């Protein structure tokens, strides 16, 4: 169950990162509120997951989910363009997240 909390925490990391972009430097109140609420939920779920998962496993998985998810959201929502080399590293990050999960 704590892995599920960790995955959801990582997804909320994507939520707050994208909301922060939409907040335009915290000048848009609704996006700012979504950013703050997303951060709180993400951190609370991460904290809950680390009750049983080692921090050395939970934290990199959490940040990895957030990083890969934010890259994908940036492509979909903002038309971000990535070079082939950047895609390679995003794929390596995703493989690393899966590898950490499989070996822990």
UniProtKB/TrEMBL annotation:
Membrane-spanning ranges = 27-47, 59-78, 84-103
One cellular component (GO) term of this entry: plasma membrane
Keywords attached to this Swiss-Prot or TrEMBL record, sorted alphabetically, are: Cell membrane, Membrane, Transmembrane, Transmembrane helix, Transport
User: How the protein sits in the membrane?
Assistant: Multi-pass membrane protein
- Name the principal localization, coarsely classed: membrane
Domain of life of the organism in this record? Bacteria
Which GO terms fall under molecular function for this chain's record? transmembrane transporter activity
Q: Supply the InterPro entries for this chain.
A: EmrE-like (IPR037185), Small_drug/metabolite_transptr (IPR000390), Small_multidrug_res (IPR045324)
The places in or outside the cell where this protein is found are: Cell membrane
UniProt lists the family membership as follows: Belongs to the drug/metabolite transporter (DMT) superfamily. Small multidrug resistance (SMR) (TC 2.A.7.1) family.
Tell me what this protein is called: Small multidrug efflux protein
Q: Which organism is it from?
A: Lentilactobacillus diolivorans DSM 14421
Phylogenetic placement of the source organism = Bacteria, Bacillati, Bacillota, Bacilli, Lactobacillales
């Amino acid at each position: 169950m704590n892995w599920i909390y960790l995955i959801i925490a990582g997804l909320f990391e994507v939520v707050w990162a994208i909301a922060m972009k939409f907040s335009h430097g915290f000048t848009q109140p609704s996006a700012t509120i979504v950013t703050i609420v997303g951060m709180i939920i993400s951190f609370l779920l991460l904290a809950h997951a680390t009750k049983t998962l080692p921090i050395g496993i939970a934290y990199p998985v959490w940040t990895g989910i957030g990083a890969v998810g934010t890259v994908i959201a940036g492509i979909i929502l903002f038309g971000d363009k990535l070079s082939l080399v950047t895609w390679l590293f995003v794929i390596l990050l995703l493989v690393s997240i899966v590898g950490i999960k499989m070996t822990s």
